[in-house]
Amino acid sequence: MASFSKKITKTDTEKRLSMPMKFLESLPPFQGGHAVEFQAKDENAEVWTFQCSTRKKGRYKKPVLSKGWLAFASRKKLKVGDRIEFYRARNQTTDESPFYGVRVEREIKLLGSRIGYSPLLSAIKPFSDFISHESRLPCFRPVQTPDPPSPFSF
Fold first, then answer.
1. DSSP per-residue codes, 34-76
2. What's the pLDDT at 152?
3. CA–CA distance, 149 with 50 (Å, rounded to integer)
4. Does residue 132 fall inside a structural domain?
5. What is the pTM of this model?
6. What's the sign of the alpha-carbon dihedral 22, 50, 83, 103?
7. What is the CATH number of the domain that holds 97?
8. Most buried in the list 12, 19, 52, 125, measured by CB within 10 Å?
9. Helices vs strands, H then E, count in the chain
10. φ and ψ at residue 11, rounded to 5 degrees
11. What parts of the sequence cross the membrane (predicted)?
């Protein structure tokens, strides 16, 4: 289904998130207006309400997320260079209607150069959740190494 991702700019962190025109096709209908609200789930299944609006006049619609965006950006501590992705998907197991998702990835730098992106750490459940349920951490796999030979064995 439709999606878009972009690198976060200063304007995105301080005012609004500009979106590509193509993503408008995947949003709910504007019903003749210039704004539409939609909800998106983040990495933690938290639901966020956003408003996408377009220019009332002019040749180019220039869609932006305004309402709800700054609260999201602040809560996720978005910085210039981070990456955001909005996508529309369908839950295959429950056959629910399509939903929107939003995913944030942190920019990773080494010696001042970007070397990649990493999912938000908030997407990992608190350590206490794993202790209480006696399960393993989903992204950490312990390395199985044989015990070193004892210096006292003959």
1. SEEEEEEE-TT--EEEEEEE--SSSS----EE-TTHHHHHHHT
2. 59
3. 60
4. no
5. 0.67
6. negative
7. 2.40.330.10
8. 52
9. 3, 8
10. -60, -40
11. none
Q: What pLDDT is stored for residue 21 in this prediction? A: 86
What are the tens digits of pLDDT across the range 136-152? 444 444 445 555 565 65
Average of per-residue pLDDT values in the chain: 75
| 32-46, 103-117, 137-151: least confidently modelled range | 137-151
Residue 58 lies in a domain: yes
pLDDT of residue 112: 72
Please give the pLDDT value at position 126. Answer: 45
Domain count, the chain: 1
Residue 43 pLDDT grade (very low, low, confident, very high; cuts 50, 70, 90): confident
Residue 4 is which amino acid? F
Q: How far is the CA of 65 from the CAs of 52, 75, 144, in angstroms?
A: 5, 16, 47
CA within 13 Å, CB half, 37:
6
If 0-12 CB within 10 Å is exposed, 13-18 middle and 19+ buried, where does residue 81 land?
A: middle
| 137, part of any domain | no
Q: Is residue 71 part of a domain?
A: yes
Q: Residue 54: what are its φ and ψ, rounded to 5°?
A: -125, 165
DSSP code for 20: -
Domain that holds residue 63: 3-123
Identify the pLDDT of residue 84.
Answer: 92
